[in-house]
Amino acid sequence: MKARMSSRVSALLLAALALVSCGKESPPNESKPEVPASSETGHTSREVTLPSPIEALGSLAPLTESVRAAVVNVEVRASGVPRRGTPPWQGERRGLGSGFIIDPTGLVLTNNHVVENAVEIQVQLLDGRQFPAELLGTDPLTDVALLRLRGQNVKELPVVKLGDSDAMRVGDWVLAIGNPFGLASSVSLGILSAKARDIQAGPYDDFLQTDAAINPGNSGGPLFNMKGEVIGINTAIAGGGTGIGFAVPSNLVQVLLPQLEKEGAVTRGWLGLGAQDLTPALAEALGLTVRSGAIVVSVEEGTPSAKAGLEPDDVIVFLNEKPITSAGSLTRAVGLMRPGTEVRLELYREGKKHERQVTLGTRPDLEGLATRGVPHTEEESQQRVGLGVSDVAPRLSAQGVPRGALITNVLPGSAAERAGLMPGMVVVEANQKPVRGAADFVRTLREAAPGSVLLLRVQVEDTRALRALTLPD
């Protein structure tokens, strides 16, 4: 059914393009229009009116009906840090976003910022069914998250598939579906306005830009091509109500999915160098014939780039067979590869071409996100001591909240409650060892003997305090 409807839409589009490119109207089963002549011939002129692109496109109802059931509402109850003078429970927040089902087993894609610090996630389908969801994996650097629906009734789920975002052209039609302002299953039409946009949201920015209406609540929802394939995850909007939206390309998501599902996080390759864009002026100053690339400005000691002999002022123009046109393209290309991958760099040094073989290292946690293992900490810590924890979000770190394990909830009557622990506290030490994130704290809980007492140092607003947590026998 979906394939037939998609074919119909494609046929309408091809017909419209053919009409526009020919510059005249020539419907099937009709003779061609008479060629307008001057009044001297005695013939009557006939004006030809071409349909507008919207008219030629026709109704998008069949396409919408074929994919809309797989678009879901994501409702999140998330932890926060209470401000001075407010009760602990006021640090909690609730939010709404969007998502879409990509697998009949209940895999749902959405944005990381929709489910950040989630204590509880509920997903609602168009047909009214509701399911709790667990967070399988998250990648804050690209703002992508993967959920799995839970429950006995997770069956006969509608799904959509990821398409080829690289095949999209600027000017192609796109359709956005989501939950703007809580208005479920809203549909908007637009075009692809630009590709490879860097909006300074992170080191791997490569957004699709669209003028399809995207508003708060659309985050995590799909951006479709006219075949009904998802070519982007709607993620951000330009401020000021300008009607400019951005989506994570589907081809990037395809690369991340296996790691998100199996490992819960993304491990990236790393060169260990600083770079900037090669401009025509810099190329002329360096005596180069190439006009684009990535100039090495620094090489960190002991890193893969240092071991391969890279030096400042080297200009990297190819990674394997992929052209490197900027520092950003180098960062993205390396970041999509796994540590241990061997790559060939083609570069210029003092005007001469060179090649270097580099074995990629593991990108360190430069942003202090510490996401590995976090999706599984909530359940494990809650089962043992009645305590839910998560990593401290980057936005909270920017407000002065220290790194550690953020307490998201405490069960009544639990060991955690008896120890005086409350939501909003941040565990920064356990048994006199630093706690850098939720995974550190859960590891300490796992290794501690039943009946033992853990000495915890916690941050409470602007002060630190000690707590003794007695583990159950």
TrEMBL record:
SUPFAM superfamilies: PDZ domain-like, Trypsin-like serine proteases. InterPro entries: PDZ, PDZ_6, PDZ_sf, Peptidase_S1_PA, Peptidase_S1C. Pfam families: PDZ_2, PDZ_6, Trypsin_2. Residues 1-23 form the signal peptide. Residues 23-50 are annotated as: Disordered. Residues 286-351, 373-437 form the PDZ domain. Keywords: Hydrolase, Protease, Signal. Belongs to the peptidase S1C family. This is Trypsin-like peptidase domain-containing protein. It comes from Hyalangium rubrum.
